[in-house]
Amino acid sequence: MSDKERLPCTLEATDPWSHARALSLSTLHGTVETPIFMPVATQAALRHVDLNVAKDLDYQVLLANTYHLLLRPGAEVLSKVGGLHPFMQWERAVLTDSGGYQIFSLSKQLSLSEEGATFRSYTDGKRIALTPELSIEMQGIIGSDIMMVLDHCVSSTSDEVTTRGALELTTRWAKRSLLARGDSMQALFGIVQGGCFQQLRRESAEQITEMPFDGFALGGLAVGESKTEREDTTEFAAQLLPSAKPRYLMGVGTPIDLLEAVRRGIDMFDCILPTALASQGVCFTSHGKIDLRRGIYKLKEMQLDALCPCSTCLRFSRAYLHHLIKSKESVAGQLLSIHNLTFYRRLMHRMRAAILTGQFRALYESEVNALSSNDLDNPTSPPQRKRPVVTDSTPTI
After folding, report:
1. Beta-carbon count within 10 A of 349 CB
2. Which residues carry out catalysis?
3. Counting beta carbons within 10 angstroms of the beta carbon of residue 384, is it exposed (0 to 12), middle (13 to 18) or buried (19 or more)?
4. How confident is the model at residue 138, as a pLDDT?
5. Which of 134-148, 203-217, 334-348, 383-397 has the lowest average pLDDT?
6. Structural domains in the chain?
7. Cα–Cα dist 238/222, whole Å
8. Paired strand residues for 94
9. Positive or negative CA dihedral for 347, 261, 148, 113?
């Protein structure tokens, strides 16, 4: 194994009011500054938009998924073209999920053993045996800057016995993943499991941080627990991880989730929401989350978000975007994805700047209300049930 550090990490600032941090990471494809949100390009593409949108917004990392890329286009294609970067024409960093979550959430006829997970491909029905070694081999072919170990995912609402079993299998698979990486200069993150059980989180963190990983992730959250449970578990578990290495909260989340998790010491995030919700007409704005399917926007000539510099906000009204959504025009997903991706990028940039200048508390207090709310200009309220008007002719029982 090379003595060269795979993912040099500099802790640039810590916030005096919270656990928020600002890091600088050196990957094989450039510098990554945290806190950072990584848009999800599951199958080597962002939903609705060209990768140039992510480049223009200065996103430094995209997330791709080993499970999906293993099934299509497959190892043969990616080997021939030299990996994912040239295949999708992306020159910046890529993080690959191991496929652990997908084999338990998407696969049919799943069989789990100590060796790995066997399932049927959704592309051609063939049986696939995904082991920690195959996951790392495939991530090597993909050429990601940061790889993830194969882990055993269970619902965060699982009982303690089930959660402990998943934790212990994850630890054993983590050891095999490290061995499988060999001399590759790709960084590798370990994953801490344990659901919402603090003692299990502590045990998992002790086991995983004993191994020479380049960073650490919290898995098994945003899969059934309440918002309060997720935040409490995140705060507890984040402080069990080394301060000198990056911390990644997998699969989270909304803008308020990001703000709360950065406050608790998390550095890296990914989620499908910015582009997935865009196709449904849902946007995040400085005035709260907006659902453009609501009829109230039919005649709203105002901008989507007056504080946003994206091309969608500069050009189109809420009324027009409402029309596109109601008309099921595919361009609506593109326009709203551009806005959501812009909103996320600007939020992370502002959080980093606030940490570096010691102003994170002021930022938090100024943003928490809007990020926690639906449209503050047009709040929704449950319809009032009309009470029947009783007259002399009203029949009685």
Report:
1. 16
2. 97, 270
3. exposed
4. 98
5. 383-397
6. 9-271 (3.20.20.105), 280-371 (no CATH)
7. 15
8. 62
9. negative
